Give the backbone structure.
Amino acid sequence: MKLTKLRTRILFLTLAAVALLCTGADAQKPTSGSATKPWGAYNWQVDQGTKTTTITAEATFNTPPGLVQITVPIPGPMTVHEVHGNCSLAVPQGGSKGNGSILEEVRDQSGNALVAVKLEQFGPSATNVPITGTFPNGLPVTSLQLQFFVDEPGTQIVTVSLVMS
Amino acid sequence: MTRPVRRHSVTLLAVLAFSILLCNELYAQKSTRSGSAESQTVRESYGYSIWQVDQGNVTTTLQSELGVSHGSSTPIQMPVTIPGPSTVHAVHGNVALSVWPGSTCARSTILTQLRDQAGNAIVSLDLVAFSNESINIPVSAVLGSAIPITSLSLQATVRCAAVTLSWSIVMN
């Protein structure tokens, strides 16, 4: 009898611990990263609340690197049904050529694109594109990837700010 | 004493293993298909075209660029193959148009559409831009009824040159 009671308690505690581990994904633990590269620099941050996950990132390209892929770990897994935010491209004054052309994507761990934009900009100025998208069947996400393709010479600054829920 | 303790440990292990499996099942994504299809840069009588389609287990992403150096009233057709069939419930992304300095028209009007294999338009835009100007138009839509797609087609009527027309669209 004693053994059975003890076993029941241990089983209950084990299940409670596992349940806590599973729901621990909801806690707010921001992740961030930055680096300086031969072609420029980038930084990113991911904040997670109980309902939404927000990614903000900026990359500066002084020389065209071609394809750039940056892995972005997120605080916890999530299922994305909707995204909104914006992407921007700025070409600063005094750039060597003065035009901007950048392909930017935010992808999940298995190559699904949450956002894909191709931004074009003549001359020293900035362009902002609002983003709104829905995923009716939900997209399970465990990590993100920022992807850029840049082949236009001259300095270009690209940003992304997205709320995912 | 040793037997009940061993049996107890085995039960605990089984419960833990089952729980971990349950957690993984809850959070792991299920991969059903993925792949890419792309064209090389194709030189055409009007200029050039290039496209790429990337498919994950949920989304299909189309990227394309059309460079037109000789305008025409005849619509340009760009057939696009996709790695596998998919069903489109929603689309979002953007279309960018750049009208280069010295264009043959001061104001360029471009009709461009993304259609499926049966001629259903998924996105349709009528873009206007002046010479030496670039515009970026967001696209976002939820389709009233889902569209099963097996291939795509990009169409554009470009009367003035030179222009660059880029598509970047996520479909799911």
Chain A has one domain: 27-164.
